[in-house]
Sequence to fold (108 residues):
Amino acid sequence: MRGTEAFDWSTGDMSGVGLEPPGGVQSPEVWPIPLPAASVRVGGIRTFWSVDEEGEPVLVVSDGVTTVEFGCGLPGANGRTTRGAERLADAMRQYAAAIEARAAAAKG
Fold:
């Protein structure tokens, strides 16, 4: 897995070890973060959202091999989980734009 300079520095509650920030900048609020536990092949991705047994919304993402569930956690749906979902959506839009630009450049 390769990283990008387009890291969302706003996720200050992560902890763990492994990844280095872009440009080697150390920010104690967000780094180090855990290494990825799984890799999902974006070209084969399927997504849907549903509700869990407590009635909270969950997002399920799968490539047919690996499945990841994004949930609200113990606090339930609140402003913090809403902002997290918005950060995820923003990052995915940026990722899609980067893929599109790379594909366009490859066509020449």
